[in-house]
């Protein structure tokens, strides 16, 4: 399935909701501490950078040609599809957490969302 000239883009889709509405902000409904907000955003940026470095290391270890990239969206599926569109992807290959039917129904499924909304073929790999 893989050709020598294929390029892989490993996408880390960051939920905006998680970044901006962490539990600490629910305690202060009307005031914004700019210093705390700036520190939180810097911490969040460092976490993203660390995750991207981990992905790059996996690709290097597996001898995969490509890049890593993050995208921000309200929902992870939207971010992945936007990245696929922006990069003119030919295919999306993704994993599944293997949630049961009830949990998937309640929590939602990124892979289900992508399968139903993607303009390109999608392969979903089950958990080991």
Written account of the structure:
This is Usp domain-containing protein. Residues 40-126 form the UspA domain. InterPro entries: Rossmann-like_a/b/a_fold, Universal_stress_UspA, UspA. The protein is α/β, with parallel strands linked by helices. The protein contains six helices and four strands; from the N terminus they run E-H-H-H-E-H-E-H-H-E. The strands form two sheets. The protein has a two-stranded parallel sheet. It has a two-stranded parallel sheet with strand order 3-4. Helix 4 crosses helix 6 (110-117). The radius of gyration is 17 Å and the shape is globular. The protein starts with 7 loop residues before the first strand and ends with a strand. The relative contact order is 0.17. The mean pLDDT is 80.
């Amino acid at each position: 399935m893989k050709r020598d000239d294929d390029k892989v883009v490993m996408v880390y889709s960051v939920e905006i909701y998680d970044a901006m509405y962490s539990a600490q902000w629910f305690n202060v409904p009307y005031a914004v501490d700019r210093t705390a907000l700036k520190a939180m955003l810097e911490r969040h940026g460092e976490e993203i950078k660390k995750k991207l470095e981990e992905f790059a290391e996996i690709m290097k270890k597996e001898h995969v040609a490509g890049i890593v990239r993050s995208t921000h969206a309200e929902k992870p599926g939207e971010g992945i599809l936007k990245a696929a569109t922006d990069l003119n992807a030919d295919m999306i290959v993704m994993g599944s957490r293997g949630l049961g039917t009830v949990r998937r129904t309640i929590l939602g499924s990124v892979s289900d969302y992508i399968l139903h909304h993607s303009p390109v073929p999608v392969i979903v790999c089950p958990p080991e």
